[in-house]
Amino acid sequence: MITFKRITASPDLTFDVMICGAEDGPLVLLLHGFAESFHMWRWQMPGLAAAGYRSAAPSQRGYSAGARPDTREPANYSFDHLVKDAMSVAAGCGRASGRFHVVGHDWGGSIAWGMADRYPEHVASLTVLSRPHPNAFNRALAASDGEQKRRSSHHWWFLEADAASRILADDARWLRGRLKANKVSEAAIAEYLGVLGNPATMEAALTWYRARGAIRAPIGVIRVPTLFIWGDADDTVGRMAAEGTSEFVAAPYQFVELSGVGHFAADQAPDQVTALVLAHLAAHPA
């Protein structure tokens, strides 16, 4: 059964966290992306619990009302803060000094790459959905064919001051259309907009982009066992970035291409994703 708890990571930041599984099970930290919420993991968490794992899916900085610093200062949403938040949530789940598994999608995948780079002694395994290694992504963005730059064009207009109002206009028409085109169900869209569908939360979510800018900061070669899942119908991530990720992992690495699956694989192919994650975790125990 999925339960909810609050984890205080600092005197003024408290995160809402979905929890599932026995308290003594190996921890699996699940990091959501944009434009979703921690609800995106609702299909995977029971399967992880049934296999003996304890999963924790935080509503991250800006998405949790208790962890929403001033958006007028983009530095409050820097990548360093996002990575440290995730480590703090893991510590709040009793893994301050131990090892745990990390699974991330989209922006959560970016954070997961950063955790594996900076804290390899704590990350037993890494699973990333729909977000290539930042170095592979940057290389694809700079490619002369312009394909990845076109796919990522929304990242530039997300930096504009009116982006939140544009996304939420006409009952979030643009966002609803994007999610529906990627086979996300109406029920899931309602859950995500239940978190993101207001100006305060949307502004905070977009401040992640404004703090980073359009180009990801390079990170090092990953030295923890890694599973990268990419759908070949992903409209935001092209093949060059996806396949190029292998060059930046110096550890057991598995690349799984899901035929006909778009950017939101955990929604569109939940059973496939759960099975792949469970097999990866079993092969690389904490």
Characterize this entry briefly.
By secondary structure, this protein is α/β, with parallel strands linked by helices. It is 43% helix and 18% strand.
What would you say this structure looks like, in words?
With 286 residues, the chain is an alpha/beta fold. It has a single domain, classed as Rossmann fold. It has helices at residues 44-50, 79-95, 107-118, 134-141, 147-151, 153-157, 163-181, 186-196, 199-212, 239-244, 265-268, 270-283, and strands spanning 3-10, 13-20, 27-31, 54-58, 100-105, 123-129, 226-231, 253-258. The chain has an eight-stranded mixed beta sheet, with helices on both faces. Strand 1 (3-10) and strand 2 (13-20) form a beta hairpin. The mean pLDDT is 97.
Number of strands: 8
Structural class: alpha/beta
Mean pLDDT: 97
What's the total helix number? Answer: 12
Rounded Rg: 17 Å
Oligomeric grouping of the chains: single chain
What number of domains? 1
Query: Which percent band covers the strand fraction?
Result: 15-25%
Shape field = globular
Order of helices and strands: EEEHEHEHEHHHHHHEHEHH
Percent helix, as a range, is 40-55%
Distance between the termini: 23 Å
CATH class: Alpha Beta
CATH superfamily: Alpha/Beta hydrolase fold, catalytic domain
Kindly identify the CATH topology.
Rossmann fold
Q: What is the strand arrangement across the widest sheet? A: 1-2-4-3-5-6-7-8
Low-confidence stretches: none
Which CATH architecture? 3-Layer(aba) Sandwich
